[in-house]
Design goal:
By secondary structure, the protein is of the alpha/beta class. It is built from 11 helices and 8 strands. The protein has a single domain, classed as Rossmann fold (3-Layer(aba) Sandwich).
């Protein structure tokens, strides 16, 4: 089982294909398997790396009393360094996009490009978003301790669909992903959720992100996420924004063909412009 030491934990990863490196960062409360369709399509031309973020999947939890986006960023940096990746493109969705965003602002010279899907910036743009990120998300933790995160999330999906139809996309795909992977411990769920509710406390200079950036969001995405796509478009210097049709919050799962084609086009532009000079050579696979 391929792992690398990243700070105080062993991070599980899978690496497939040859070519310029492309690192995928998954959303919260799922794992690396959410990127399977993209890896299948892209590994003929790129060295694709997926990994389980601390607290998730085969990486599992740790003794850290709390998690932060900065900690996730340093885990990712340790992974990139340990694998010897030469200026990878980062692709993250939702929480994974927040990690990739903070990474790009912290280590702008170490990546060739950035793909941010269905994600958000630290800035809280409306009172409704403040209510969601500071109160509602923190409010998930007590009921999760009682009945488990699967039941709490199903209830949240049901309510969200009543308010914003289509924003949850094909939720059955998320459920199927979880059927085959390790279950998340309740304490890990709490630490991950709280790291997201405190993202606004971090300093992220969007103007420091100078690499080519692609922002994707689902057509039926939550309104506040769409506002963050506009925020990124306004403050990142080299940015493209694309709406994924017939998709909700997990746009790579809801419309994988469109999502993957957009990523392929973006990667072709980066590497045609010399965004990555040296292919990463032979790679290993850590399949299940």
């Amino acid at each position: 089982m391929p792992t690398v030491q990243t700070n105080d934990i062993e991070t599980y990863y899978e690496r497939r294909g040859e070519g310029p490196p492309l690192v995928f960062v998954h959303a919260s409360i799922v794992d690396r398997t959410m990127w399977k369709q993209q890896v299948d399509a892209l590994s003929d031309d790129y060295a694709t790396i997926v990994y389980d973020v601390r607290g998730h999947g085969r990486t599992g939890g740790s003794t850290e009393p709390e998690y932060t986006m900065d900690l996730f960023v340093e885990d990712l940096h340790a992974l990139v360094t340990a694998l010897g990746l030469d200026r990878p493109v980062l692709c993250g969705l939702s929480m994974g996009g927040a990690i990739a965003l903070k990474y790009a602002a912290t280590y702008p010279e170490s990546i060739a490009g950035l793909i941010l899907a269905d994600t958000f910036t630290p800035r809280i743009l409306t009172r409704g978003e403040w209510f969601l990120r500071r109160l509602v998300m923190n409010g998930f933790v007590p009921p999760v301790r009682l009945v488990g995160y699967e039941r709490v999330e199903k209830a949240n999906v049901w309510l969200t669909e009543r308010l914003f139809g289509g924003s949850s996309g094909d939720y059955e795909k998320i459920e199927r992903l979880r059927e085959t992977g390790p279950k998340m411990a309740t304490d890990e769920f709490a630490k991950v959720i709280r790291s997201m509710t405190r993202f606004h406390e971090l300093s992220v200079d969007l103007s420091a992100i100078t690499v080519p950036t692609l922002v994707l969001y689902g057509e039926n995405e939550l309104p506040f996420v769409k506002r963050h796509a506009a925020e990124l478009a306004a403050h990142v210097s080299d940015v493209e924004v694309d709406e994924v049709p017939d998709a909700g919050h997990a746009s790579n799962l809801d419309n994988p063909d469109y999502f993957t084609a957009a990523v392929q086009t973006f990667l072709a532009r980066i590497h045609a412009d010399g965004g990555s000079d040296v292919p990463d050579g032979s790679v290993e696979s850590g399949g299940q």
